[in-house]
Amino acid sequence: MKFIVNKGGCLTGRIRVPGDKSISHRSIMFGSIAEGTSRISGFLEGEDSLNTLRAFRAMGVEIDGPVDGKVVIKGVGMRGLQKPAAALDLGNSGTSMRLLAGLLSGQDFDVELSGDSSLSKRPMKRVTHPLAAMGAVVDSDAEGRPPLYIHGGTPLCGIDFVMPVASAQVKSCCLLAGLYATGKTCVTEPATTRDHTERMLHAFGVPVSRTGSTVCINGPAKLSACDIDVPADISSAAFFMVGASIAEGSDIVLEHVGVNPTRTGVIDILKLMGANIELQNQREIGGEPVADIRVKSARLKGIAVPEALVPLAIDEFPVIFVAAACAVGKTVITGAEELRVKESDRIQSMADGLQALGVDATATPDGMVIQGRGAGTASIAAGTVQSRDDHRIAMAFAMAGLCAHGEITINECANVNTSFPGFVALASGAGLDISSSSD
Ligand code: S3P
Q: I need a surface site. Which of 66, 239, 300, 329 has the fewest CB within 10 A?
C-alpha cells in the first residue's frame, strides 16, 4: 500500500486517535493471567495488539471482542495458560515478543515465538540474557534473533538486573518473569522509561516498589481482574501535534490522550522548539494521566534535543525529524542509537527519505543533524520516499506533506495498521490531503 499526499492544508477540529499500544498489549497480558473477568475499553484494534490478543487465545484464554474497542477477558490465573498448538506468530510486534518472553518463561510448557521479517531481525539478547540469569532456558539463533524457543518447567528465581539500555520492554520482560519467580526481582534503568507495566500491575493488585531508578516486585505473585480504560496513544497523537505545528492556520484538539510523564517527551521537545501546545481537562483514569491536547500552528526553531528526553520520546523521533525539517535553524539529536533497532533503522530510513525530499539531513551513529529552512518557505520538496514497512516512518512523511511544495508519495505503508488503523480517514478528515492505493 502507498500513500499519496498533496501539498498544503492545515489540521483543525477535534479528533480521538486510537488507543495506546503499550497499554493495550499489557491489558491483554495481565487480564489473561489474572483471576476473574477484566473489561477493557479503548483497546487498540491494530495488528500489533491483536497479535498479543490472538496469542493468549491460542493459549486457551477466552477473550470476547474487540468490538468498538471493548474486550472482555476471562482470566485463567497465573497457572491457567495452556500450551498453544503451534508457534505464536507475533507479526511486527517487538513489545509482544519481549514481554511474552518474560511471561512465558514462567510456564510449564514449551513455546515458540516468531515474527515477520522486521521482527526476525531485532535484537533479543537484551531479554534472553537477564532471563537466563533468572534460570529460564530460551534459545534463539547465534546472533540472539527470533524465533525464540522457550523451554517450560524451569524454576525461576528473582535477580537484581541493571539494564545496559534504557528499555521499557526489557524492564517489563524481567518484571513479568519476576511474577513467576521465587523472591525479589529488581530492575535498575539507566534512564527513565515508560512505566505502564508498574502502574498496571498495581491496578491488578501486585505491589511494585520504586527506589530511585530501581523497580522491584516479589514473586510468586497473583493478579486480580481489573477494568482498564485505554487512553488515546500519545505516539499516534504526535503526528497531529507536529502536523498542526508546521501547517499554518492549524488549530486541533486531540482528545483523551495518555499523558503519562514517562511518555510526554515529544510535548517537551516540541515546546522547546516553540510549539503552541496546551493540555486541557487534565484528569487521571485508571492510574494513568489523561488530557485533551490543543495544538495551534507556530514558528518552530531548531534546537539541540536534551538527551534526557530521548527515552521519553523514543517512538516519536520520525515525526520530530519532520518538525526539525520545517523549523528555522539547526536541530541536533544525539543519544538516540536505539532508533537503529526499531521496526526499521529509523535514523537511516528518515535521513534517506528527508534527503529524497531535498532536506539537509545528516545521519549520525546516534541521531541526526537537520538544517531546517522554516515551514512557510517550502522546506520540503515533492518526491517519493520508502517507509521500509515501518508504520511510524510512513505517518511521519505523510505529515511532511503539510509543508511541502509538491506531491509526496510514500511506499510500503501497509504496516500503518499495526498501530493506527484508520489513519488515512482520520488524517484526511482533519485536513491532510492524503489518499492510499495499493502499490
Ligand atoms: C514499548 C517500549 C519501547 C517502544 C515500543 C513500546 C513498550 O521500546 O519503542 O514501541 O510498550 O514497552 P524499548 O523498550 O525497546 O525502548
A: 329
